[in-house]
Amino acid sequence: MTTLNWTIEYMSASTQPIAGQAEVVLTAGWRCIGTDGTNTASNYGSCSFPEPKTGDTFTPYAQLTQAEVLGWCYANGVNQTATEASVTQQVATLANPPVIQPPLPWATA
User: Fold this and answer.
1) In angstroms, rounded to a whole number, what is the distance separating the alpha carbons of residues 40 and 95?
2) Partner of 51 at 20 to 30 A CA spacing, among 3, 39, 43, 96?
3) Domain limits of the chain?
């Protein structure tokens, strides 16, 4: 069984106010890591977010949670299901490789 863990590795925020808000997150880098306890694989990427408009609900940068930012990623093009399936398959392939390189039969040890 593969255990999956999502993390936000960085966020880029505006240095100038946008729609009256400071430190608006514009981009986040994410990673999905999977492990079966022996083998580990991951997928990573970044996601851009639309700028807020005046009156939009806004969470100040210092109050953001990783879960909230991951939710933004999923809502803005990161396919959680496909990414988790890909990482799970990578771990399975590492555990049971479809191709191996056995020693040459004529080589002596």
Assistant:
1) 9
2) 43
3) 3-95
> From CA 12, how far away is CA 18, in angstroms rounded?
14
pLDDT one-digit tens code per residue, 80-91: 999 999 999 999
Q: Is the confidence at residue 42, as pLDDT, over 80? A: yes
Task: Work out the average pLDDT over 66-80.
Answer: 98
Residue with tokens 């930012």, as numbered in its chain: 69
Dist. CA 24–CA 16, nearest whole Å: 9
Which residue from 3, 47, 49, 8 is spatially nearest to 31, judged by alpha carbons?
Answer: 8
Token pair 């490789």: residue = 97
CA distance 62 to 66: 11
| C-alpha separations of 92 from 52, 61, 95 in Å | 41, 38, 5
pLDDT number for residue 109: 62
Alpha helices, DSSP H, located in 1-109? 66-75, 80-95
